[in-house]
Model the fold of this input.
Amino acid sequence: MAGAGLDPARGWVELSTQRRDFPAGTAFLGWLRSQALNAYEPTLPPPARRAFRAEAEERALAELPNADGSYDLDFIRLDLLAHAG
Done:
């Protein structure tokens, strides 16, 4: 953090592991749309966004289900507070 001009003594960093369980594909798609895909779309040219979203959703539903049709998501969230040095 100090290399970026931030004072680590005046802030904090925390890693938070999380697991989300989704009972069905519709719930998983809701999370994917609201938390993941929208982070990538601004970097894409507007005409490519719809195709990107469609392919990501199709692949996620096809490649990630559990045997019972549910979906699990494990991730690590980085929480931090930093102040300019």
In short: The chain has one domain: 2-84.
